[in-house]
Every structure is written in C-alpha cells, then in structure tokens.
Amino acid sequence: MIKTATKQLKNVFLATLMLLGTISLTQPGIIHAAASSSIGIVNYQLLVQQHPDMAQAEATYQAAVKQAQDDFNAKSANMNDQDKKALYQQLQQGLQQKRMELLGAINDKVDAAIKEVADAKGLTIVIDKSQVVYGGQDITDDVMKKITGK
C-alpha cells in the first residue's frame, strides 16, 4: 500500500514537471516578461514634504486654522455646549477639506514627476520605498530634481 502511494506521488510529481516544462517552452514571453519587468521605488513622503509648493501650502493651511479658531471664538461665545460641538465639527471638516485640497495639488505634481522619470527610465511599476523589502531602482533623487528643476 505504501509502495502504491509513493508510486502515485512520483507520477503526479513527474506529470507536474512535464506540464511546467511544456508551458515554459510554449509561453516563453510570460517568463521573460516577469524577469525583465522594471520596478522603481520612491520615498513619496520625502518628495511631498520637500516639494517647493509645500511651504506655501503649509502657510495657507495655518492661516485657515487661525481663521477657524477666530470664527469659533467669535460665534461660540453665547452658544450652548451642543451648538459649540456642532460648530467645532463643522470647522474641523472645513479644515480637513482645505488640507486635502492643498495636499492634493502637490500630490498631483509629485505623481506627474514620478511618471515622467519612470517613463524616461523605462520603468513599468513605481512603488513607495516603505513597501519594499528588497530590490527595485530608487528614483527618488531623479524625481526630486524634476520637481525642483535642480
């Protein structure tokens, strides 16, 4: 009984090897494509933080925070706690929207620069450096040069 099971296991193993060999011979492009694909990596957070527009975006956001604080102080003086809470939440939502708007414009510019560099280098995939354990071509410096013009 053990000999029969061992013989069946050998047959399955041999059949699998033959199938894989046949696939690799008839579909060489699949294996070649996987081996030749190029992956780029970037430190996305660094690119956003050091983008030339970031200082202006941060200043604009801080001005919006100050305005929201002033609005809250002025409007909430005679409000009950529930109305104060509602006003606070409304102002917080406005600030979140403003932040997304400001960062969205910068993210779009960073994404465009990454795409340009990746296309120029023939890279098919670019992922964030924090997600990479090993390998990939780091293009962060090239993208930074594209963004800053230096």
UniProtKB/TrEMBL annotation:
GO biological processes? protein stabilization
Q: Which stretch is the leader sequence?
A: 1-26
Q: Which UniProt keywords apply?
A: Signal
Mind telling me which Pfam families this protein's record contains? OmpH
GO molecular function, one example? unfolded protein binding
Origin: domain of life: Bacteria
State the family it belongs to.
Belongs to the Skp family.
Protein name per its UniProtKB record: Chaperone protein skp
Q: Which organism is it from?
A: Lucifera butyrica
